[in-house]
Amino acid sequence: MRIREFREADWPQVWEIIQDVVRAGETFPYDPAMTEGEARVTWIEAPPGRTIVAVEGDRVLGTAKMGPNRPGAGAHISTASFMVAEASRGRGVGGALCRDATSWAKSHDYAGMQFNAVVETNRSAVELYQRHGFRILGTVPRAFAHPSRGRVGLHLMYLEF
Description:
Number of strands: 7
Mean pLDDT: 97
Helix content: 25-40%
Structural class: alpha+beta
Radius of gyration: 15 Å
Oligomer: single chain
CATH topology: Aminopeptidase
Shape: globular
CATH architecture: 3-Layer(aba) Sandwich
Strand content: 35-45%
Order of helices and strands: EHHEEEHEHEE
Number of domains: 1
């Protein structure tokens, strides 16, 4: 597996991953009826942000996007989002994407990385981020409408560089 910059030819596989993750409704607060055009605008970052893919040969295993968390006076803090294809979960893809994103942010002189809305029931993501040094700063109770668990909390997570 290797991590590289997103290329236009990757889009059909990235879109497939986004569709599966968003339609499941368990980890991202995106509209499950999101169109391909809306997904593309949401996921493909313009500079100073960046979109990457984890690949094995020609197969996209996962994708991430990153950039400043806020404009202006908050632009020194980065953010990132990660999606992994269902068949590739549990193989270290998310960890590789997270390491790449934090390394990129550090190399671009961000002071830290903030995740604004990590669904508390997404234990694999919460634990992954904690293994990489992120802390839960707080939780907004009942802020995410999970399809099977009802309203659950959203964590604010942070890693200072």
